[in-house]
Amino acid sequence: MTKWLLLVVCLGIACQDVTSAAVNHQRKSSKNLAHSMKVIYEWKHIDYDFGSVERRDAAIKSGEFDHTKNYPFDVDRWRDKTFVTVERFDGVPSSLNVVTNKKGKGGPLLHPYPDWSWANYKDCSGIVSAFKIAVDKFDRLWVLDSGLVNNNQPMCSPKLVTFDLTTSKLLKQVEIPHNIAVNATTGMGELVSLAVQAIDPTNTMVYIADERGEALIIYQNSDDSFHRLTSNTFDYDPRYTKLTVAGESFTVKNGICGIALSPVTNNLYYSPLASHSLYYVNTEQFRNPQYEESNVQYEGSQDILNTQSFAKAVSKNGVVFLGLVSNSAVGCVNEHQVLQKENFDVVAQNEETLQMIVSMKIMQDLPQSGRINDPGNEYMLALSNKMQKIINNDFNFNDVNFRILGANVKELMRNTHCANFNNKNNQKNNNQKNNNQNNNNQKNNNQKNNNQKNNNQKNNNQNTNN
Fold first, then answer.
1. Pick from 125, 209, 133: nearest CA to 173
2. Can you say whether residue 91 is alpha, beta or left, with left for phi > 0 and alpha for psi between -120 and 50 degrees?
3. Is the pLDDT of residue 349 over 80?
4. Which residues contact 91 (CB under 8 A, 6 or more apart)?
5. CA separation for the pair 89, 47 (Å, rounded)
6. CA distance 341 to 12
7. Core-most of 24, 95, 302, 355, by most CB within 10 Å?
8. β 242-245/225-229 pair status
9. Tens of pLDDT along 174-220?
10. Which residues face 207 on adjacent strands?
11. How far is CA 248 from CA 17, 286, 461, in A?
């Protein structure tokens, strides 16, 4: 088979020519996709700044620290701090951390944030498992604490924790009610992603993905209310439960996973991990406290991607970036264009450094830049963690396993479909056209699904701040 025949095959096939790609109709590009994103930090294994050799040795002896059980899952940045979360397994001393300038044998050492006292979780006063985090424009760090140990053992109630980044002091801690955090029918729930919509310091919405319970949870900061929404667009697709990364496969039955909020349209983009879909819901409708769940409109399409997608992020110009699982790549689509396969593109692809991108953030500067960059620019920060090896438990800790990478957003988009912003004024028309093409039956399906599952889902329980 010739090179050109390979280039028109679906993105699920790994092409040897990584300098040319698009999600459906791959084409030549002057860009070197393998080097589009630069490695900023890398680790063979995760280690911590314990303060002394004696304390580290004691942590190893007691089982508090086991470097083979520490896997990073999220990254974010505020001024000179780069945050890294580590899912809590036995042997993880701290889940919420900052990267230090100290080096260990495995890579840069991590230090608990705000301090070691927050790493103590067994009485539920600290942070159990900070799976995902978000920094908002009011200098607040939002932490989604799943309350789980070893991925599936409930230790404490899940909660949202908010810190003032200027002082590193706790602002708020709100438990997520059990009937909100789990699926009432299956009893399952795992809160894995969040997106923060900070309209003002009080009027802030937080969107949370329940991967195992297949739901979207909405938190309103002003009154501490939670709503749980379900939709068939949150459900995993049994056709796509097998994921393959760098030739290594594993199986998941996970629903809605990576979510990202557009600063342009206020669309919340999402997809079930076990799917080839991309959906969105406009969050303007949630600002009305009287909205009806049966009237919530979900848009998007099944089978629009050629692989599964985990992490997502949206630029200030409305470009949606997606981590493409089987391709070890970053894809993009411009939300000012019709959501169809022909408008997707690939901006980075590297079989080694981009194995399982589990986190993406858009920001104004990058670590180790030495200064705040030009505010006219945007930068992507991404984390890859070889999740296939976490699930299959076959890491080689002599190899580099975890990486934080960065890139200039404009450079990523150069010479791609995503760089075309000429259709901004036609957003409504494009959305309508896209809806007619892909979603003729979506509203009816969702309404039926919501009527079946959500008659009594709203919950406005008031939570006491700790």
1. 125
2. left
3. yes
4. 63, 64, 65, 66, 67, 68, 69, 70
5. 14
6. 14
7. 95
8. unpaired
9. 999 999 999 999 999 999 999 999 999 999 999 999 999 999 999 99
10. 195, 218
11. 20, 40, 44
pLDDT of residue 2 exceeding 80, the answer is no
Tokens at 360, concatenated:
């993406």
Looking up tokens 């006491």, which residue turns up?
464
DSSP conformation letters of 180-235: HHS-TTT----EEEEEEEESSSSSEEEEEEETTTTEEEEEETTTTEEEEE--GGGS
pTM of the model: 0.84
- Domain architecture of the chain: domains with CATH: 33-423 (2.120.10.30)
Angle at 39 between CA 34 and CA 44, to 5 degrees: 110
Q: Which tokens hold the place of 329? A: 């790549």
Q: Which two tokens stand for residue 214?
A: 């297949």
Partners of 5 in beta bridges: none
287 is written with which tokens?
Answer: 């600002």
Left, alpha or beta for 239 (phi > 0: left; psi -120 to 50: alpha)? alpha
